[in-house]
């Protein structure tokens, strides 16, 4: 037993010798950095990109969703792990579009142009800001409801989910876009 105590004393002495020049940390909490979310400005002139046909159907009335309701869509073939990253905001956002205050027609055309430009620039993940509808005429989320329907129709949309609280919560969406060459 005496040999075991001597070994422990030698180990402690060796440890103390190795850390004698160490400086104490100023804090005891780890700093976890969230991924940087940057916005890329989409550039287009009328001569560069012809406008495509309106990809969104207006024949069917959009089903009204709640102001605080979480929207979620996972297209066929989207891996669960990738969707989980999208849902939790852990995919790098490359662009965003704020649709606040637009009429439905203006929002529909702006969204179609935005998606087209994102695909041309090989942008994969974007944030759409639609608001919660509290300032609409009847305090109903009209634009949010239509986005829920329109995005499900568009062939370039792989998945979408309501944003995290830091990025707008249920007033914004993370959207995962298909690569340009994959669009039918």
Task: Describe the overall structure.
It holds the Pfam family Smr. GO terms for molecular function: DNA endonuclease activity. It comes from Methylophaga lonarensis MPL. This is Smr domain-containing protein. InterPro entries: Smr_dom (IPR002625), Smr_dom_sf (IPR036063). There is one protein chain. The longest helix has 17 residues. Strands 1-4-5-3-2 form a five-stranded mixed sheet, with helices on both faces. It is of the alpha+beta class and 184 residues long. It has four helices and five strands. It is elongated and about 85 Å long. It has one domain: Ribosomal Protein S8, Chain: A, domain 1, CATH 3.30.1370. About 4% of the residues have low confidence. Strand 2, helix 3 and strand 3 form a beta-alpha-beta unit.
Count the beta strands.
5
The CATH architecture assignment turns out to be 2-Layer Sandwich
Uncertain runs are: 43-50
Q: Give the averaged pLDDT, no decimals.
A: 82
Measured as a percent range, the helix fraction is 25-40%
Morphology: elongated
Kindly estimate the percentage of residues that lie in beta strands according to DSSP. 5-15%
Task: Kindly report the CATH topology.
Answer: Ribosomal Protein S8, Chain: A, domain 1
Alpha-carbon Rg, integer: 25 Å
How do the strands of the widest beta sheet line up side by side?
1-4-5-3-2
Which sheet architecture does the biggest sheet show? 5 strands, mixed
Give the helices and strands as they follow along the chain: HEHEHEHEE
Q: What's the helix count?
A: 4
The CATH class turns out to be: Alpha Beta
Please identify the oligomeric state. single chain
Pfam families: Smr (PF01713)
Protein name: Smr domain-containing protein
Organism: Methylophaga lonarensis MPL
GO molecular function: DNA endonuclease activity
């Amino acid at each position: 037993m005496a040999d075991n105590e001597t070994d422990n004393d030698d180990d402690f002495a060796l440890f103390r010798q190795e850390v004698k020049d160490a400086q104490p940390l100023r804090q005891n909490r780890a700093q976890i950095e969230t991924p940087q979310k940057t916005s890329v400005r989409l550039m287009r002139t009328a001569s560069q990109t012809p406008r495509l046909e309106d990809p969104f159907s207006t024949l069917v009335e959009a089903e009204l969703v709640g102001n605080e309701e979480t929207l979620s869509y996972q297209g066929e073939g989207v891996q669960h792990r990738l969707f989980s990253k999208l849902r939790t905001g852990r995919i790098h956002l490359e662009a965003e579009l704020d649709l606040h205050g637009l009429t439905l027609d203006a929002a529909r055309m702006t969204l179609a142009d935005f998606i087209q430009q994102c695909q041309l620039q090989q942008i994969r993940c974007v944030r759409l800001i639609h608001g919660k509808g509290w300032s609409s005429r009847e305090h109903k989320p009209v634009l949010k409801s239509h986005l829920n329907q329109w995005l499900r129709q568009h062939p370039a949309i792989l998945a979408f989910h309501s944003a995290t609280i830091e990025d707008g919560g249920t007033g914004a969406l993370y959207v995962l876009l298909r690569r340009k060459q994959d669009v039918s």
